[in-house]
């Protein structure tokens, strides 16, 4: 398929794997890219030297384009940017910050930049900053999210009206039919996080993957809006946060409750009760853990079948 996103990133399919913390290492990113999509290394959980190692291993595992997800609030962001430039990473997906700070620096080195947004207002700012594309991420998505709680179904057309650069749809997408729906609404590609968490190559803990595919509707909820909104699977930690919020806990109290390393404890180390478990609503549609290449091929097959089937 040829469209603005496949041409921009030089990929075969308009399918992009989210750069999730504690899940998106070089194994997953290279497998998705090898399968014809765009794999992303999630740098948000990596120290600079670890990021460099993952980039080099990814380059050794695939000759196809891949990228790095770059949270702009990361404390060592300047070091991450320098490593990305030195290692000649072709694509960066930035998030959680002002895209105008680093976009031109990256583009001057020939790097394509997409920025993740949760509203048409932020999409317009990303376009004004010169980003090559924008990711419109609805509040169904796992992990950090927008306070507006705008659904993907509403967000995609709103963003498409607000900008002329290519739009990538994210949030609540894990099937080929959902991919088609997103593209009918104006998106040129989709980005999937939760579907790729439940993959063989994801670096997240096996216990977490199994909990993800066992999730049902209503098992996730957007929490911690006073700090940074994040969608969580319901567990003991979730219950503590919910109770604290109901009792009117301050930002300081919630920050103390969250502590440090909570996401690593849950998603990477497999502590399913005390850990922070970030995943999207679409986990309710997932029922297997399969190789990333199989995910890409299945999504594409479902997309083509949905495209060819008449309306009912």
Describe what this molecule looks like in 3D.
This protein is an alpha/beta fold and 312 residues long. The chain has two domains: 4-203 and 283-308, TIM Barrel (Alpha-Beta Barrel); 215-282, no CATH class. The chain has 14 helices and eleven strands. The protein has helices at residues 4-9, 26-34, 48-61, 77-86, 103-107, 120-128, 152-162, 176-184, 194-197, 206-214, 236-246, 251-258, 262-268, 292-308; strands at 15-17, 39-42, 66-71, 91-95, 112-117, 133-137, 143-144, 167-170, 189-192, 220-223, 230-233. An eight-stranded parallel β-sheet has the order 1-9-8-6-5-4-3-2. Helix 8 links the parallel strand 8 and strand 9. The longest helix has 17 residues, at 292-308. The radius of gyration is 18 Å and the shape is globular. The two termini are 26 Å apart. The relative contact order is 0.14. The mean pLDDT is 94.
């Amino acid at each position: 398929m040829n469209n603005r996103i496949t041409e921009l990133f030089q990929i075969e399919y308009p399918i992009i794997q989210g750069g999730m913390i504690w899940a998106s290492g070089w194994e997953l990113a290279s497998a998705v890219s090898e399968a014809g999509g765009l794999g992303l290394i999630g740098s948000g959980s990596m120290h600079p030297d670890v990021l460099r190692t993952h980039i080099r291993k990814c380059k050794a595992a695939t000759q196809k384009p891949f990228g790095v997800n770059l949270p702009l609030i990361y404390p060592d962001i300047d070091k991450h940017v320098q490593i990305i430039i030195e290692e000649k990473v072709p694509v960066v997906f930035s998030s959680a910050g002002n895209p105008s700070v680093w976009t031109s620096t990256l583009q001057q080195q020939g790097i394509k930049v997409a920025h993740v947004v949760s509203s048409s207002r932020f999409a317009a700012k990303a376009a004004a900053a010169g980003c090559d594309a924008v990711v419109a991420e609805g509040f169904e998505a796992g992990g950090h999210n927008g306070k507006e709680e705008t659904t993907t179904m509403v967000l995609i057309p709103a963003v498409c009206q607000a900008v002329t650069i290519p739009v990538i749809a994210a949030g609540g997408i894990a099937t080929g039919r959902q991919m088609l729906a997103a593209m009918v609404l104006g998106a040129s590609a989709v980005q999937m996080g939760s579907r790729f968490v439940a993959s063989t190559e994801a670096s997240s803990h096996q216990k977490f993957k199994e909990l993800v595919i066992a999730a049902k509707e209503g098992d996730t909820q957007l929490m911690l809006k006073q700090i940074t909104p994040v969608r969580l699977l319901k567990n003991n930690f979730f219950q503590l946060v919910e109770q604290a919020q109901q009792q009117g806990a301050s930002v300081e109290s919630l920050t103390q409750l969250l502590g440090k390393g909570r996401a690593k404890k849950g998603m990477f180390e497999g502590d399913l009760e005390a850990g922070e478990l970030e995943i999207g609503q679409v986990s309710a549609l997932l029922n297997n853990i399969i190789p990333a290449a199989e995910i890409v091929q299945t999504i594409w097959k479902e997309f083509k079948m949905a495209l060819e089937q008449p309306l009912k």
